[in-house]
Specification:
Elements (H helix, E strand, L loop, with lengths): L12 E3 L2 H4 L5 E6 L8 E7 L8 E7 L4 E5 L8 H10 L21 H6 L13 E5 L2 E9 H5 L3 E7 L8 E2 L5 E5 L3 E9 L7 E7 L1
Antiparallel strand pairs: 1-2, 2-5, 3-4, 6-7, 7-11, 8-9, 8-12, 10-11
């Protein structure tokens, strides 16, 4: 049943409890499970979940014995990542195999990283950064997706001499554009190699 600040006209109308309970799920299903003799039935939904991006009323007309999929907050813009999920997983939702942390193709890269680097999450491709010693510097080269940039995703290069928690330092130098395609940019940044005999560099991708 609809589980928060919602009203419906007939007891025969039910909706997924994921509506309102989970802001990551943009779509849900409404069922009309009995025929009351009418040819249609109107369902009015109201939602006021602070910070969930789901505010507003929705009116829906259902045919008898129908199953209808509804897009939550359909007047809100769909993000590039949601479009990417829909393309590869047929869902907008950050759930299951389509979730950010999932790795359905078992290639060691999460869905979020594959989106951020404009990859196919089912193709077992890898877009890993590279590091090369150039003089007294480490040359760190990485790829970032233009759709992810448009969604506000940040690509943060960090270094550490110990790998210990709390030891990572963000690189403040600007990354130079090396090449680009319609989907990606390849960027490069120089980091002092240090004098301790070892220095580690990583790329942190954050929303």
């Amino acid at each position: 049943m609809i589980n928060k600040s919602a009203s419906y006209s007939y007891q025969t109308v039910q909706a997924s409890a994921h509506w309102a309970a989970d802001p990551d799920r943009r779509s849900w299903q409404v069922y009309k499970t009995a025929d009351d003799g009418s040819n249609s039935q109107r369902l009015t939904l109201t939602e006021d979940l602070s910070g969930g991006g789901l505010t507003g009323n929705r009116n829906l007309v259902l045919a008898p014995y129908s199953i209808t999929t509804v897009l939550i907050n359909s007047d809100a813009a769909i993000s590039n990542q949601e479009t990417w999920r829909q393309q590869y997983f047929s869902t907008f939702s950050n759930l299951g195999t389509a979730s950010d942390s999932s790795d359905p193709d078992k290639d060691g890269e999460s869905n979020f990283y594959e989106f951020a680097t404009a990859q196919n999450p089912q193709a077992r491709t890898l877009v890993s950064p590279t590091v090369a010693l150039v003089g007294a510097n480490l040359q760190f080269t990485y790829v970032r997706g233009k759709s992810a940039l448009a969604d506000g995703v940040s690509f943060v290069v960090e270094w550490s001499d110990t790998l210990a928690a709390g030891s990572w330092t963000p690189v403040t130098a600007s990354a130079t554009l090396v090449s680009e395609t319609t989907l990606t940019e390849t960027r490069r940044v120089l980091i002092p190699a240090g004098s301790g005999g070892s220095r580690f560099v990583r790329l942190r991708v954050v929303k």
